[in-house]
Write a structure and sequence with these properties.
- The structure is a single chain.
- The protein is 34% helix and 24% strand.
- The protein is of the alpha+beta class.
- The strands form three sheets. A five-stranded antiparallel beta sheet has the order 9-8-7-6-10, sandwiched between helices. A three-stranded antiparallel beta sheet has the order 1-2-5. A two-stranded antiparallel ribbon has the order 3-4.
- A hairpin with a 2-residue loop joins strand 1 and strand 2.
């Protein structure tokens, strides 16, 4: 009799746990990302792109100033027109986090023949009451957002304010038109997310895996979406080098030494030719 009671109790517990799991999965499945919210200041104003032939006008290019601390920010934005046929170089930016040796933020910057630079950073859009969590990022917690930004914002912030190690690698493509196609793909995604919002995900839709999605649109299957470096993103530059996306014949250690820019950024400071100085 005692054994029957124990069996029934275990059965009840298992059924209850399964029921809770089903309810949780249903809640996650029906949960939709918000377009409106009390967003953190740096994530509050979305960027958009307006295509006119080979020209694109990017609205709300973020150009914040910070100091003496990151919280002491002065919001600023500008609109700018870019000629899609005049992309000189694509740059891959990696910022391993000081507080987490396995994770990094990565993004792309596009250099134009006239000396302009346009960075596209893919982020988890957090409200003012939220902080980023790898674990929460596995669930439907943060909407995904693409932001256009000035390098004097997104690069200088990471190198000079956060004092993180920042690396800026030149990207190599097999076809010259891939630079244009990549930027157009990212800008269209930026626009689309404001109409059809998606969730950020630590594994499948983080900053690095999202870039890989765009790369694979140009060369289907080039990089496996199951590559561990897409999740442990501090090693994403190793994956890019392995797949021939970095324009260098150096080893990873040599490339990191050559394309490390934090010290140059600290020396340059917030000047108009910042992007040129950090690459010298």
């Amino acid at each position: 009799m005692e054994n029957i009671k124990k069996f029934r109790l275990k059965k009840f517990i298992i059924i209850g746990l399964v029921g809770l799991l089903v309810l949780f999965l249903a809640w996650q499945g029906f949960k939709q990302p918000a377009l409106q919210g009390d967003w953190q200041t740096q994530l509050a104003v979305p960027s958009t792109a307006e295509f006119i032939g080979n020209q694109v006008i990017v609205h709300n290019v973020r150009n914040f100033r910070y100091g003496p601390k990151e919280a002491d920010m002065q919001p600023a934005y500008y609109d700018k027109s870019y000629d899609l046929t005049q992309i000189k170089q694509v740059w891959y930016v990696a910022e391993p986090f000081n507080e987490n040796k396995f994770a990094a933020h990565t993004f792309l910057s596009f250099e134009f023949n006239n000396g302009d630079f346009l960075a596209i950073t893919i982020e988890a859009r957090k409200t003012k009451s939220q902080t980023y969590s790898v674990w929460k990022g596995m669930l439907r917690t943060y909407p995904l957002i693409y932001l256009a930004a000035d390098e004097r914002d997104v690069v200088l912030l990471r190198a000079n304010l956060r004092k993180d190690n920042v690396y800026i690698y030149p990207v190599k493509f097999s076809r010259a038109e891939n630079s244009k196609l990549l930027l157009v793909s990212m800008l269209k995604k930026m626009n689309d997310l404001l109409v059809h919002p998606n969730w950020y995900n630590t594994f499948w839709a983080n900053c690095t895996s999202s870039i890989v999605n765009h790369i694979n649109q140009l060369s289907p299957g080039r990089i496996s979406m199951f590559s561990w470096q897409l999740w442990l993103t501090a090693s994403a530059d190793k994956l890019a080098l392995k797949n021939g996306l970095l324009d260098t014949n150096l080893s990873l250690e040599e490339a990191r030494a050559k394309y490390f820019i934090t010290e140059k950024s600290l020396q340059a400071g917030d000047v108009l030719n910042y992007s040129t100085l950090i690459r010298q």
